[in-house]
Specification:
single chain; alpha/beta; Nucleotidyltransferase, domain 5; 5-stranded mixed sheet; two-stranded antiparallel sheet; 7 strands
Amino acid sequence: MNCSSWVSKSARPAWASIWSVPGGHRSQSWRSFLDNHLKSLVSVDFFTVPTIRFQVLYVFLVLAHDRRRILHFNVTAHPTAEWTAQQLHEAFPWDTAPRYLLRDRDRIFGDDFVEQVKAMGIQEVLCAPRSPWQRAYVERVIGTIRRECLDHVIVFNQAMLYQHLKAFAAYYHESRTHLSLDKDTPETRPAQSAEVGRIVALPQLGGLHHRYERRAA
């Protein structure tokens, strides 16, 4: 389905009211909404990771859309609405809360989470059922974490998974370039001229990935 497509009127989700205008006309497409609120929109989601002992761990992720930054993540074996609400509070201390929060309709986001969102002055945007394309940014990042990190390591326990994710987040922010950011990293890194020196490869994540920089001989 194309990201600018619309669901049927009878299946319109809660987010449709954000840009509806009197008379029932739509003022902007879903893609336009994402583009217009890029700097004030975050996505949250869970994904699961099995351990070597077949325990299922849950990773909660908060992603800022503007620079594809991972603002916060944490790991738990027992996700509750109360725990999830606390993660949101830790992700946005003081007056740093975004205007919009995009999420799916998973029951894991219970009453405690909804109340925390309201208390922080954030407006929830719920995607349509069975429409992961509406949360493409966070879905893509989760896929990247799996393909470029978790598929290559063995997870023994919760603490080890957290350390793997912490190391990957540092690489992701400081070294991994994005086409959508004009081949820049989420944490902007300055361009280096040829006069600086030759290109060297700096191993990261135990050599799983590399950062390329120019260094003087």
